[in-house]
Amino acid sequence: MTLRTQVLIWVGFTVVVIAAIWLFRPILLPFVVGIALAYILNPLVNMVQRTRIGRGWATAVVLLGVLAAIVGIFVIITPLIAAQIAGLVVRLPGYITDLNDLVRRIAPQLTEWLGPERAAQLEASLAQFLGTGVEFIGNLTAQVAQSGLTVINTIAFIILTPVVAFYLLLDWEGMVKGIDDLLPREHRREIRTVLDQIDRSMAGVVRGQGSVILVLTVYYATALTLTGLNFGLVIGLITGLFSFIPFFGFLTGIVLSMTIALVQFAPNWWFVLLIFMVYMIGQFLEGNVLYPKLVGQSININPVWLMFALFAFAFLFGFVGLLLAVPLAAITATLTRYALRRYKESALYHGERPAKGAPERELALAASEHKAAPARRTAPKK
């Protein structure tokens, strides 16, 4: 099979997958979440299975335990979160108005520090920024409300997701073996290497980054609540849950927190400084402790590419695309690195000279061509 044929096959396969996701996007949510849940829990099921418990019972025990924990957390926390979200949406315009009044009260001091022109520019920029922020939050809330799950979809999601996860966990080893049996014999070892790299990248995305999101959500929600910030719980949840989008969760959280803190605690600036320090400590933990320990270099995705993938997939496929964006970006990055490595080993990159580390078949071919060269290449000149 020629290289051109292989490229056409893979491009066609990619187009078919994207078309299928777009066509079936209204019903994919339970299956996507079920697959992710099965992938996350598979190591835990394997661990339980080593205690000489059958695969079916190990799957049932792990899945039921996780679902019980999730249901318990939702039953306890969901009413409080819903109340805080409703209160934040209602009171946010008032906070913006109070912040404008605060700026006007300290305007004489700003004028003295910055001068009349710079103070006026600062006040106008702040008013424009706050107005844009309120409009953005209002539009986002309306879009979430319009694209929210209906009652039927919610029931289907609650029922189908555990069923999909259970059957995938039950037959996980069989599916892996079936995929391995379908690999071309000539390229099996190389494909296995690429699949292992994809698995490590996916583990970093789903398990590693999922752990980071969980830790950050608990940290911000607890820290902001303990500081006494109004709606600290829901703002902490927003900051942590959206931390998988580079800088989005942090910027959204700190803008909301500082806006409310300035109105709530001024002129007691120590509490405002405390809220600011909560976010600085969170950023330090995320960048220097959590990501190096829990994720490491397994993802290795440029933040710009990650943000583009998130917005592009969300635009094309809605909420399902938002869930699929990061894993598919990790897979694409792995395949791109592999393609670049093979390109740098090919004759297209090096010319007729074989690359260092190229496949042995290419080296043998180059050696045979060298031996078959005309004798005049080595004959002495008369």
TrEMBL record:
Keywords: Cell membrane, Membrane, Transmembrane, Transmembrane helix, Transport. Pfam families: AI-2E_transport (PF01594). Its main location: membrane. One of its GO terms (biological process) is transmembrane transport. GO terms for cellular component: plasma membrane. It is a multi-pass membrane protein. It is found in: Cell membrane. The chain crosses the membrane at residues 7-24, 30-48, 60-82, 149-170, 212-238, 244-262, 269-285, 305-335. InterPro entries: AI-2E-like. Belongs to the autoinducer-2 exporter (AI-2E) (TC 2.A.86) family. This is AI-2E family transporter. It comes from Devosia nanyangense.
